[in-house]
Every structure is written in structure tokens, then in C-alpha cells.
Design brief:
This protein is of the alpha+beta class. Helices cover 52% and strands 6% of the residues. It has a four-stranded antiparallel sheet with strand order 8-7-6-9, with helices on one face.
Length: 572
């Protein structure tokens, strides 16, 4: 056994056997033997020298000064050096936080995504003598066992939480484990578990993937994440020995290659961008800001805005971070500023998700033609990007181009037949065509697959619309319970109630004008009455939950304008 000093992170450790590697930062170079006795002797000699004769004072003083300078140089050499932006290194939790703070991220917001917990330490056990493949397999199996019954959903952010590796491991060990997570959280958890097994692992973002064969980023803001494993620190950022996609071990639509079968081998056919640890920390901060904004846009807009600003300071410039900032700005009513962030995102990464996000921002400004052009560009870049087809279907119907709308709906259903948002869109069309039973059946299927409050609100609307009032009432009671702790759901239900009141008022006015018994019956039944014939261009309910980020000035309000920060004292 021998002691060594790591000049990268300053850690002193005892090496027993096997390949020499720092257990803190996993570096193989920048290591040197650590001789504690020699250093203690040096310190003792320095103390003895102070008792020499006065005639040698000047010489001793010079020796002491030289010793201090040498000691400072040695200390500086051993002190961890924060990486440059974009530099790929596996950092200790302390050095990662130090790096973020050095880049002007407020200390209370500087958190390591890989932060440990007791549950994470117990997640996987490997032997030091195991090879790389055996360790990777052990971690893969351990993580897959924990996440197999979760649903991967970028809109899991609406719960208001984005967890570190330690926090997610603890949550999974709890009997009230979360039902849905983001691919970011799963990638961070897997990377932390791999590092715990003494493997070099980096979180990586995949983009320009073909959505028809893989689960692409449906938001243009949250991102889609995997884990890259490397043989040595010299290989970081180069060809990985393996790429793991932990989202494939969780519940994902079958069209996206998932299904909770424990397989993690990445099937991505796009580009892989390994992220430096500080950029992963910045993404954690930005996504937490987005989650805060989605949970309570009005109350949390100032803090969410500040968190996304700090995230851009802490990271290398990234399209994903500008996308997050665009959604946060738009949710607070600053759609003009959000469009500017969307343009920055496209300049850094011109792909289908970024074009789709820009289209949504333009829709919030009621610019249908410009939004349609962005979506057509998105489809050119990826014909299988089903969110683009879905939004093009909606624009086609709203602008009276029904054949065009139907064509894109058919394309979305062919690509992602079991995607809840696609099912909900198809259900809306069927209800408008008077096919009530088929429409409600599709929404029930969507709610069974997804189970989120957003999908349940659409089912509630449909049940009222077709007169299934008892079932609608029971569902509304469950939704009201959820709304007690979720302001976004509360606001969405309020928008639904306003729509119902407006519909009842219009029907009542028709009855008062002498429309006879039929008009009076429609007024009494409200949304439960049989729908009138569909107009040439119909309006979909303005409840923007689910795949679409909450964009615009709130439900029923036109977007636009520059964002003004409210005078809110920022918390931690």
C-alpha cells in the first residue's frame, strides 16, 4: 500500500492494488507519491532553524522565506484548479460547486447534480477487481431495477422538482416514489452510480435524432440525455467505450424504443454532445428555474428568470439553456424577449425541437403564418418529429385548411400512435366531428397511458361536452384535490370554468332571444349538450399543458411585450 497526492483535486489517498486512480475525481494522471514523514521532517527542520545564533539570523530568515514560498507553491500545486468552460473533467462535488461560484453563480444556487446520499451509496455494489464491462453491467442492472416502473416525461418538471443523483436515489427508495422523471435526472443518477463504481462517466445530450425511431426532445428546452462511459481521462470527449440510455429502462412509448425492459444501450442516430460537469450543474439550475416557473408562473417568475440567467453564466453557451430561458420569459408574459432567446437557440443548434419551440412562441404572438413556416422547416429537418406534425394540424384547422390539418394529424398518429398528446389531438378532432364515443375513448386511453393532470383535464372537458356529467363530476373532484398543491392545474381548471360559463351564457342568450325549446335545452345543459355543427375553422380549448410548454401571457391571454421583472425578493 502507498499514499498518493492528486494534483487535480488535492485528495490524499492510500492505493492498495489495481490501476492507480484518484478515488475522488477518478484521474489517472496528475498523481504523485505522498511522503508524510518527509513533509513532517521538513516542518520540524524549519522550526529548529529558528533557534540558531543571531549572527545567522539573516541566512535563516532567507531560508524561512524560501521555505514559505516553496510551501505556498506546493499548496498551490495541490489546490484543485477549476476547469475552463467546456473542459471535460470529472470533478468532485466540492470542486464542481467551487467552479460554479467562481463563474458568478450565487452560492445558494450552486449545487452538484452528482451529490451523494446514503441511498445512492447503497444503489450498486461492485468489486474493484471487476473489469469495465462488468462494472457497467452491474450499474445498468441496478438502475434499471429502480426505474423500470417510471415514466420518462419532460413535463415531469411541472411537479416543481428536478432532483440531484442523491435526491433521486432517496426518492426511488421511498415507498412513495415519483411516477415520472426527466431523462436529465436519470442520466445524472446513472453517471453518479458509474462514478461510484470507479468508472469515468459524463452526462451527454443527444440531438438531431430521428423522432420516428427514438424519443427526441419534444420541448426544444428540456433536452434529451444519455451517459457516455470512457476508458481513461485522456479519452474524455472522444470515442466512449459505451453509451447508456437510462430512459430506455423506464416506461417510454414503444415507438421510442423503450418499455421498462432494462435495456440501456443507446439507439440514438444523431449527435452526441458530452457535457462538462459545470454545464450539467448549470442545466440543473436552469431546469429547476423552469420547474419553478411551470408550478406557479406569476409568483415565481422573478426567481425563475434569475436562475436561468445564472445558469448561462455557469455553463458553456448552449442551445438548451436559451430554450429554457425562452419558455420562462414567455410564461411570465415576455414573449418578445422569449423570441430573442429562441433565435439564439436556433443559431447554436438548428434542429426540429428548436424550430418547434420558436413556432410556439410565434403562436403566442398570434402569428400563425410565421409559426407555420417554422414548423415546415422543422419537418424538413426531421419528417418523424411528431410534435411538429401535431402543431401543424392545429394551425391547419384554425386557418380553415382542413385537409392540410388532417394530413398532419394522420402523420403524427402514424409516427406516435400511443403518444398521449397525439391521442388527445385526435380525440379533439373526433369530438368536433360529432364522433363522441370515439373521442372519449381516445382520451381515456391517453389518460391510462399518461395519467397526468393535463390529460385528465382534457378528458374532463370531453366528458362534460358529451353529457357524461356524473363521470365528469367525479373526475373534477380528483382534479380539484390535485389543484390544492399545484397552481398551474388550478389556473387551468379556472380557465375551463370560464369557458363553461361563457358557453352557458351564449346558450342562455340564444334562448332569451326566442330560440325556442331547443335553445333553452342547450342553455340548461351547457357543455353537456350535443355539439352544434363544426364551423369551418374551430377554436381548440386554450389550455396549454402537456407537451407544449406554458407559453404566452396565461390561458386565454395574448402574448407579446417585453418581460419586466416584478419587485420580488429572491429566495434560495
Amino acid at each position: 500500500m502507498s499514499k498518493h497526492l492528486c494534483n487535480n483535486c488535492g485528495h490524499v489517498f492510500t492505493h492498495k492494488k489495481g490501476k492507480l486512480r484518484c478515488p475522488s475525481c477518478l484521474r489517472q494522471n496528475s498523481l504523485e507519491p505522498y511522503d508524510e514523514a518527509k513533509r513532517n521532517k521538513s516542518r520540524s527542520s524549519a522550526r529548529d532553524g529558528s533557534s540558531k545564533r543571531l549572527g545567522l539570523f539573516i541566512g535563516v530568515a532567507l531560508l524561512l522565506v524560501g521555505g514559505v514560498v516553496g510551501g505556498l507553491a506546493l499548496f498551490h500545486k495541490a489546490k484543485p484548479v477549476p476547469p475552463k468552460k467546456g473542459e471535460l473533467r470529472v470533478l468532485s462535488d466540492a470542486l464542481l460547486v467551487q467552479t460554479l461560484v467562481a463563474r458568478k453563480v450565487t452560492a445558494s444556487y450552486a449545487v452538484s447534480p452528482f451529490a451523494k446520499s446514503d441511498a445512492l451509496s447503497k444503489l450498486v455494489s461492485v468489486k474493484k477487481s471487476d473489469g469495465v464491462k462488468a462494472k457497467v453491467a452491474a450499474v445498468r442492472d441496478a438502475v434499471a431495477k429502480q426505474v423500470g416502473d417510471l415514466r420518462v416525461d419532460p413535463n415531469a418538471l411541472s411537479s416543481g422538482e428536478v432532483r440531484t443523483a442523491g435526491e433521486l436515489a432517496a426518492a426511488l427508495a421511498d415507498k412513495h416514489k415519483p411516477e415520472r422523471v426527466t431523462s436529465f435526472e436519470l442520466a445524472v443518477l446513472t453517471a453518479a452510480a458509474l462514478r461510484q463504481a470507479q468508472l469515468l462517466a459524463l452526462v451527454a445530450e443527444i440531438y438531431k435524432v430521428k423522432a420516428k425511431t427514438h424519443s427526441a426532445d419534444t420541448t426544444g428546452a428540456v433536452g434529451r440525455y444519455v451517459v457516455a462511459v470512457y476508458a481513461t481521462d485522456k479519452d474524455l470527449g472522444k470515442k466512449p467505450v459505451e453509451v447508456l440510455d437510462p430512459a430506455r429502462a423506464a416506461k417510454m412509448p414503444q415507438w421510442a424504443g423503450g418499455g421498462g425492459d432494462g435495456k440501456m444501450t443507446s439507439i440514438h442516430d444523431g449527435k452526441l454532445e458530452p457535457l462538462d460537469d459545470a454545464s450539467v450543474g448549470a442545466r440543473l439550475l436552469a431546469l429547476r428555474g423552469l420547474a419553478l416557473s411551470k408550478k406557479a408562473p406569476k409568483r415565481n417568475s422573478a426567481e425563475a428568470y434569475e436562475m436561468t440567467r445564472l445558469a448561462l453564466l455557469g455553463s458553456a453557451d448552449a442551445a438548451t439553456l436559451h430554450g429554457v430561458r425562452a419558455v420562462v420569459l414567455a410564461s411570465a408574459g415576455g414573449v418578445d424577449d422569449a423570441v430573442g432567446e429562441g433565435k439564439k437557440a436556433i443559431a447554436l443548434r438548428d434542429d426540429a425541437p428548436r424550430r418547434h419551440l420558436m413556432a410556439q412562441l410565434l403562436l403566442a404572438k398570434r402569428q400563425l403564418g410565421e409559426a407555420q413556416a417554422q414548423l415546415q422547416e422543422a419537418i424538413k429537418k426531421d419528417e418523424g418529429y411528431w410534435p411538429g406534425h401535431g402543431t401543424l394540424a392545429t394551425i391547419g384547422w384554425l386557418s380553415g385548411q382542413e385537409d392540410e390539418g388532417n394530413k398532419h394529424l394522420a402523420a403524427a398518429r402514424a409516427i406516435a400512435p400511443d403518444e398521449p398528446q397525439v391521442l388527445a389531438l385526435a380525440a379533439t378532432r373526433m369530438l368536433q366531428d360529432g364522433k363522441n364515443d370515439e373521442g372519449v375513448a381516445l382520451l381515456r386511453k391517453a389518460a391510462k397511458i399518461d395519467g397526468s393532470a393535463a390529460v385528465q383535464i382534457k378528458l374532463y372537458l370531453a366528458l362534460r361536452q358529451v353529457g357524461k356529467n356524473d363521470e365528469a363530476k367525479a373526475l373534477r373532484q380528483r382534479l380539484d384535490k390535485i389543484a390544492e398543491s399545484d397552481e398551474q392545474i388550478k389556473e387551468a381548471l379556472a380557465a375551463v370554468d370560464r369557458m363553461a360559463a361563457a358557453a352557458g351564457a351564449r346558450a342562455g342568450a340564444g334562448a332569451a332571444a326566442g330560440s325556442g325549446a331547443a335553445g333553452a335545452g342547450a342553455g340548461a345543459a351547457g357543455l353537456g349538450a350535443k355539439m352544434p355543427p363544426r364551423p369551418k375553422a374551430f377554436q381548440l380549448p386554450d389550455v396549454k399543458l402537456g407537451t407544449d410548454p406554458s407559453i404566452g401571457g396565461g390561458a386565454g391571454k395574448p402574448g407579446g411585450g417585453s418581460f419586466k421583472l416584478p419587485d420580488v425578493k429572491l429566495g434560495k
